[in-house]
Amino acid sequence: MTIADTTPDTRTPAEILADVMSQPWVGDLFAELTQRQQNSMALAEEVREHVVTNHVFLPFHAPMFPLAVAEASGSRLTDVDGNTYIDSHLGFGGQSLFGHNPPQVVEFVREQALRSTGNGYLNPLELKLGELLKELIPHCEKFALLNSGTDAIAIATRLARAYTGRRLVAKFEGCWHGTGDVAAHNTSFFAHGHPKVNPFPEIGPDGIAPLTAFTGVPQLEMLILPHDAAAASKLIEKYADDLACVIADAACQSWPFTDQTVPELREVAHRCKDLGVPFILDEVLTGFRFGTAGAAGHFDIPADLHCYGKVVSGLGLPLAAIGGKAELLEAAHTSGMPLTDIGSKTFVVNTHSGNHLSIAASYASLSMLRDAGPAFYERTEAKVARVQSRLADFRAETGIPLRLLGFGAFAGTFGFTARDSYDTYREFGAAANPLGPAVLTLMLRKRGVYTLSMPMFYTGDAHSDADVDAVCDAVIDAAREMGRNDFPFVIP
Q1: pLDDT in tens, 273-295
Q2: What is the pLDDT of residues 407-451, one digit of tens each?
Q3: What are the angstrom distances between the C-alpha of 43 and each of 30, 65, 268, 299?
């Protein structure tokens, strides 16, 4: 038995980073990956000269060794160097239901493409998708079809403002709601820097000072709520006459402990209902991952609008949705008289909203999910339970604090934390070791498991039981190697 030294490292994050990066085993890892994916690295440099928006170039999330993928099928990727990987990233989870290019979806989209109306037309398939969404998510009365989760959050905010005639928007500290201007305030702590470098702002009588995460984003007047149900409810009550809406993550990525977050959300949602403040539930990550009714149905969280993205699409073709109460969504629906619409309606669609092929892919994929029934979720939950069991055994054997932190059966992140759970968002943020997941990602890469820049684990029928075991083997073997090299797993 090998028990790792997990005494908290008291050095600054910069000192820890400099020390780890200077160690020979890290240099060997970098050299191996550079050799392994020479064509990927060269292609990334060439693309960088022309295009800035690929995900491998994103600020805050860019991988140190960008991978160029030549083809994908099921749970597997093949890069331009000929290396094959088990895909744990699965397009930010967008392909986690059935993996890359499920034949049934591909064939349906191919057949539709031969007579596609493209974008900008009403197609009969839109009715079928709308009916299917209502069947799967019965608490939503109507839907708006959009392109991305970021779109969904931005448009849901606009709909709430149109409905209430108010401007102020509230959100919880640390929640990631895409990259729109409203969403980019007080987002996940890693976008602002580690709390030990940039301390959290004070929690005052008017909430938390709004902070923009990205340059170029205007600092808006917003109400930033602490992760404290009583304090948040008091602030909402104080500003109720000015609030257009409250936006909340069904499961906050930066505090992924539903035993803590769900009671808070439920209490705040009911308080909003009492005060007549629209409550918007961000289900971009959790939609269809706690069952087809999402976190709202699973945890009984009432909301006026629900935002969906990622797995609501198919084949990576862009599609997102807002579902919810008809009275809020009607603000985007014409009265039938253009002159009457002026001053009473709002515009939410763009050129590619509800395009034919995206609708086709979504309809085919969600039809497969409906037909799979509860057994689909039982299979996925069993896979994740097996991962959690193996990691618990590994922690007991070695003392290395390797965990899968996440929400629902579909989404989680491998990382190193001293405890299974944390009482507050700020406590978890201060305890997070961003270097651990970054190094683990590269260690997995050389073991044939792909994630983008963090060791995310999205799963479903995309992965076979053998795939899940192989990912577990790779994660555990990587953590063992890190332990042998005295990696600083825990920071105080």
Answers
A1: 999 999 999 999 889 988 999 99
A2: 766 778 999 999 888 888 899 888 888 889 999 999 999 999 999
A3: 18, 12, 48, 45
Distance CA 218, CA 304 (A): 27
Decide if 55 contacts 422 (C-beta within 8 A).
Answer: no
pLDDT digits (tens, 9 = 90+) for 340-372: 878 888 888 888 998 999 999 999 999 999 999
- As annotated, the residues of the chain forming the CATH 3.90.1150.10 domain(s) are 13-100+375-484
Closest alpha carbon to 360 in 102, 123, 103: 123
Strands 207-208 and 305-308: unpaired
H or E segment and range at residue 73: strand 69-73
Per DSSP, the three-state class of 271 is helix
CA distance 290 to 299: 9
Q: Which residues are within 8 A (CB) of 353 and not within 5 positions of it... i.e. 6 or more apart?
A: 119, 145, 146, 147
Q: What is the torsional sign of CA 147, 149, 150, 153? A: positive
Distance of CA 311 to the CA centre of its chain: 11
The rounded distance, in Å, linking the Cα atoms of 349 and 351 is 7
In this structure, which amino acid lies at residue 176?
W
Residue whose pair of structure tokens reads 């990550």 in the numeric block:
285
Structure tokens at 403: 């965990």
CB atoms within 10 A of CB 382: 12
Where does CATH 3.40.640.10 sit in the chain? 103-372
Measure CA of the first residue to CA of the last residue in the chain; give whole Å: 25
Tell the residue number behind the tokens 């609501």, with chain if given: 312
Contact 182, 220 (CB under 8 A): yes
> CA of 196: how far to CAs of 160, 200, 299, 367, 488, in Å?
36, 9, 34, 47, 16
- The pTM (predicted TM-score) of the whole model is 0.93
SS3 category, 387? helix
Cβ atoms 289, 311 nearer than 8 A? yes
Cα–Cα distance between 389 and 318 in angstroms, integer?
35
- The CATH label, of 1.20.1250.20, 3.40.1190.10, 3.90.1150.10, 1.10.246.80, for the domain at 13-100+375-484 is 3.90.1150.10
Can you tell me the distance from the alpha carbon of 456 to that of 460, in angstroms, rounded to the nearest whole number? 13
Please determine, for residue 218, whether its predicted confidence score (pLDDT) is greater than 70.
yes
From 255, 260, 308, 314, select the one nearest 285 (Cα to Cα): 308
State the greatest distance between any 2 C-alpha atoms of the chain, in Å, as a whole number: 77
DSSP 8-state code for residue 337: -
In terms of CATH architecture, what is 103-372? 3-Layer(aba) Sandwich (3.40)
Helix axes 38-48, 24-36, angle to 10 degrees: 80
76 touches 438 (CB < 8 A): no
